[in-house]
Amino acid sequence: MNFSAAYASSAPAWVGFSGTVSSAPRYFYGSRTHSMHEAFDVATASGPVEVVDNVGIAPRCPVQCGDRVDICGKMVHDRGQPPIVHWTHHDPAGRRSGGFIRLHGRLYA
Q1: In 34-75, alpha helices (H)
Q2: What kind and span of H or E run contains 4?
Q3: Cα separations (Å) of 103 from 18, 19, 81?
Q4: In terms of CB atoms within 10 Å, which end of the chain has fewer, N or C?
Q5: What CA–CA distance (Å, rounded) separates 35 from 30?
């Protein structure tokens, strides 16, 4: 599914897109995964998204406001909130496709 269709839908979808980082990264401990995550907002042509990356699996991505990024991951929707894109890293168990964050030509997966 293309990104704009996935953005407009309420169904989870695997997406790839580019955008501009619009917030500083925030770090938190995942209650379900029990590992550290980083989250940051990205402005896209379709609207804002929150990117949530498990940095217990992938390296932290040193994003700053204004950085251009390419993202691949799973988009999920939370009514009344911007969509969240997660699974922006490889699957250590090899059960599903991996995602990534690309910043300044470097891949964080």
Answers
A1: none
A2: helix 3-8
A3: 10, 11, 25
A4: N
A5: 5
Q: What are phi and psi of 5, to 5 degrees?
A: -70, -40
| Token pair 């699957």: residue | 91
Q: Which amino acid is at 99?
A: G
Domains of the chain by start residue, with CATH: 3-108 (2.40.50.140)
The model's pTM: 0.92
What sign has the CA pseudo-torsion 103, 106, 104, 9? negative
Separation in Å, CA 75 to CA 8, 15, 58, 99, 100:
11, 7, 18, 11, 13
Start-to-end C-alpha separation, the chain: 21
- Report how far residue 101's alpha carbon sits from residue 1's, in angstroms, rounded to the nearest whole number: 19
